[in-house]
Write a structure and sequence with these properties.
Layout (H helix, E strand, L loop, with lengths): L4 E6 L3 H11 L6 E7 L3 H11 L3 E3 L2 H5 L6 E4 L3 H13 L3 E5 L6 H12 L5 E4 L6 H10 L7 E10 L7 H4 L1 H4 L3 H4 L1 H11 L5 E9 L25 E8 L4 E7 L8 E9 L2 E5 L3 E6 L2 E6 L9 H15 L7 H20 L3 E2 L5
Parallel strand pairs: 1-2, 1-4, 2-3, 4-5, 5-6, 7-10
Antiparallel strand pairs: 7-11, 8-9, 8-15, 9-10, 11-12, 12-13, 13-14
Helix pairs in contact: 1-11, 4-5, 5-12, 10-12
Bound molecules: nicotinamide-adenine-dinucleotide (NAD).
The site of nicotinamide-adenine-dinucleotide has 24 residues, from helix 1 and helix 4.
Length: about 350
């Protein structure tokens, strides 16, 4: 690999123009974006023109033929992640892929099989892990201050921020609704803060309460009711091997005060802490204690820190900053919530190690 890290973008929609490319990749020293690919050629051409990207493709397989590309950044709709990740790994590229890395365990296992045949890295783009708040909370938890965590509450709930593009609401493209789309953010962060205890069984429930009707106006505009084929609310209850539990709520539409609540609270035997606000509660010598952690200073936006971590891992020959071995359990839980809802019974999570 030359000193310059050469990167290809696969999928050039909202998250690329809004975060991954700028400020993301443009903030990483010695990087050249050599190609952009989107099935919507006009979109890829526009990005290429705006950011002086020399090559444009409409099929990611053609982009992957470029020998000079070291790494790809995959930001397509969820159901395209697996074919693109597998093809990229097979072509010898390092891969950063947006969340959810996949929408079924079967897809993740296909990625893992491809990963095991190469020395490249695969990183799931879970940017919340890289925010100043998350980094501060994680560092504090690692001092052992919480004691044993016996329960965690996780929310990824919105009042009416329903993403309207087909890539989110058409199950053939998205593979799931808010549970996969935003539940994945809060669940990944919570499991990471908990140091990834092993999940063993899950019970869940998913509903489409409002999205087929017109009761709640969409904050991002109106969506195609006939195309909408995913849940708009899901909840799950997770048991871990170590006896602790976790409850997750995810929604795009529900009656609540705030536009969005993305948070987690870890209840430990010595203290509790909430993410991302850093509030903690404890008791010392029978005196109740409340406090608040300050976010770490001097950090760039979370998406940029995530991309810097990816580039740093490639250059330093280091392991993936968000490895598939962790993501597999995140996706297994989310998939199990939906399977449990369909089967109306608890679903077991196998050991994937
Ligand atoms: N981390 C975050 O905060 C965050 C935020 C938004 C979206 N996302 C994730 O990023 C991904 C993309 O979301 P988005 O908001 O940019 O969606 P988007 O619909 O704006 O963009 C997706 C792009 O992928 C293109 N595409 C579809 N199939 C393709 C294929 N086979 N090859 C190449 N391009 C293809 C589409 O034409 C579209 O331009 C999704 O997985 C989503 O979950 C993450």
């Amino acid at each position: 690999m030359s000193k310059t890290l050469k990167v290809g973008l696969i999928g050039t929609g909202g998250i690329v123009s809004g975060a991954h490319l700028k400020p993301g990749w443009l903030a990483v020293p010695d990087v050249e974006i050599v190609a952009a690919c989107d099935v919507n050629e006009k979109l890829a051409q526009k990005l290429a023109k705006d950011f002086e990207i020399p090559k444009v493709f409409t099929d990611f397989r053609d982009l992957l033929k470029l020998k000079e590309i070291d790494a790809v950044d995959i930001c397509t709709p969820n159901k395209v992640h697996t074919p693109a990740v597998v093809a990229a790994l097979e072509a010898g590229k390092h891969v950063l892929c947006e969340k959810p890395l996949a929408v079924t365990v079967e897809e993740i296992l296909a990625m893992r099989a491809a990963l095991r045949k190469t020395d490249r890295i695969l990183m799931t783009a879970q940017h919340h892990r890289f925010s100043p708040e998350s980094v501060a909370i994680k560092a504090w938890i690692e001092t052992g201050v919480l004691g044993e965590v016996y329960h965690t509450r996780v929310n990824a709930i919105r009042r009416n921020w329903l993403p309207i593009s087909p890539g989110f609401i058409d199950p053939k493209l998205s593979g799931g609704g808010p549970c996969m789309d935003i539940g994945v953010h809060a669940l990944d962060t919570a499991l990471w803060l908990m140091n990834f205890p092993k999940p063993v069984r899950v019970s869940g429930r998913a509903h489409t309460n409002f999205a087929k009707g017109f009761d709640i106006p969409g904050a991002w505009g109106e969506w195609d009711r006939t195309l909408f084929g995913v849940e708009d609310f899901a909840s799950g209850y997770v048991h871990f091997e170590n006896g602790s539990t976790l409850v997750l709520e995810a929604s795009w539409l529900q009656h609540q005060e705030k536009p969005e609540e993305m948070n987690a609270t870890l209840l430990g035997r010595k203290a509790s802490v909430s993410w991302p606000d850093g509030r903690f509660h404890s008791v010392v010598n029978r005196t109740l204690v409340d406090g608040c952690l300050h976010p770490h200073t001097g950090r760039k936006p979370a998406h940029t820190e995530e991309i810097l971590a990816f580039a740093h891992a490639i250059r330093g020959g280091k392991p993936s900053p968000v490895p598939i071995e962790q993501t597999i359990y995140v996706i297994a839980i989310l998939e199990a919530i939906m399977k449990s809802s369909q089967a109306n019974k608890e679903v077991e999570i196998p050991n994937f190690d």
